[in-house]
Amino acid sequence: MKKVSLLAVFTFLAINVFAQSEGDAIIGIWMNDEGTARVQIYKTKEGKYNGRIVWLKEPNDPETGQPKLDKKNPNEAMRNKPVKGLVNLINLEYKGSKKWGGDDARIYDPKSGNTYTCDATMTNESTLELKGKIPGTGIGRTATWTKQVKK
């Protein structure tokens, strides 16, 4: 009986490790489809995936020469925060089959100040399709990001 139990435990652990490593394929630095920003996707201690803006093609405000700020954020307290360093991809969970999403998965667009629900699919090792939708509507668009740097 113990042999069967140990085999079941090892099988479960092996499947779990494989699923984690497959889910981690999203980790890395991704260029947005406009070529204006790079987002570093990382795994949180809770096991979800977030993304932080780590590079901007135009990092400074053309009027002030200072770093671009999150001026359109609906939270007034956040409007004086730099866009570079901003966490704009939040709470993606690995769903299997190279797909991420979840009830709390969101993507924030600092250009508009809007937050959208988000699902992501890796179509190959270097291509990530992000579907942002207006919450509760299903209306949205798909952006294709390109991997720049692995893990």
UniProtKB/TrEMBL annotation:
Pfam families: DUF2147
UniProt keyword list: Signal
Domain of life the protein comes from: Bacteria
InterPro entries: DUF2147
Signal peptide (UniProt feature, chain positions): 1-19
Annotated segments matching region Disordered: 57-80
Ranges where the DUF2147 domain occurs: 28-147
PANTHER family: BLL6627 PROTEIN (PTHR36919:SF2), BLR1215 PROTEIN (PTHR36919)
Protein name as catalogued: DUF2147 domain-containing protein
Species for this entry: Raineya orbicola
